[in-house]
Amino acid sequence: MPVPNEAIDCFSFYFGNYSVKSTKLQITRFLLLSLLLAVFAYFCWLMLGITLQYLPLDTDVAFLRIKQDYIGYWHYQVAFFVHVYSAIFCLLAGFTQFSGWIRRKYAKVHRMGGWVYVVTVVLLAGPSGLVIGVYANGGLSSQIAFCLLAVLWVYTTIMAVRAIKNRNYRQHRFFMIRSFALALSAITLRAWKFGLVALFHPKPMDVYLIVAWLGWVLNLLIAELIILKLKQ
């Protein structure tokens, strides 16, 4: 019995309109997309756990224990907590933008989720990430990596808004793919860090220098490949 297209679309990114020619391919696609959603949900749960470490507001817990040289700066403290508390909403709101089922059946949810994502990235998570990036561990290389990530994240999000206002839906899709790929660096950075430590046991600062770039550059390259595929 074929898997209903509505069920598939519920889990599907709008990265393309793939023709399903058989029940086997249909089921395979459904299972892969379900797995993708499950993995994403799991990492969002982990990110929520990281966020809750800082509630109630605490400057001597988790990551901040190695940032005591900077936590006394009021602007760093404000930027850090704004970033930590807002980033989780970017992941959740951003993911709703890629469901064809939501766009068709619940257009208002799509629009509201989009504006939550845009406001959070442009006014909260992006600018605060830039401030944090200035004080990143690992020296100049890591600082450039995280600052560039923040700038590109805000830029691609603004360009997505500009495109949709001009009713250029194609460019809107492309820039949202780029923007969300950068948003996912919150997850991929930690995944790469875990993998590198488990496999190679490098020095902590060496890991930080690597994941500062690997955590988002690879995401952006994959996004460009997806966009290239859509343009064909």
Task: Describe the protein.
It contains nine helices and no strands. Helix 2 (about 25-50) packs antiparallel against helix 3 and helix 8 (about 185-200) packs across helix 9 (about 205-230). The longest helix is centred in the N-terminal third of the chain and has 30 residues, at about 25-50. The radius of gyration is 19 Å and the shape is globular. It has one domain (about 50-230). It has about 230 residues and is mainly alpha-helical.
Distance between the termini: 32 Å
- Measured on Cα atoms, how large is the radius of gyration? 19 Å
Order of helices and strands: HHHHHHHHH
| Beta-strand residue fraction | under 5%
Global mean pLDDT: 82
Structural class: mainly alpha
The main pleated sheet reads as: none
Tags for this entry?
globular, mainly alpha, 232 residues, 0% strand
Please sum up the structure shown.
This protein has helices spanning 5-11, 23-52, 74-96, 100-105, 107-134, 140-165, 169-183, 185-200, 204-231. The chain is mostly helical and 232 residues long.
Topology diagram in text:
Layout: H1 5-11, H2 23-52, H3 74-96, H4 100-105, H5 107-134, H6 140-165, H7 169-183, H8 185-200, H9 204-231
Helix pairs in contact: 2-3, 3-5, 5-6, 6-7, 6-9, 7-9, 8-9
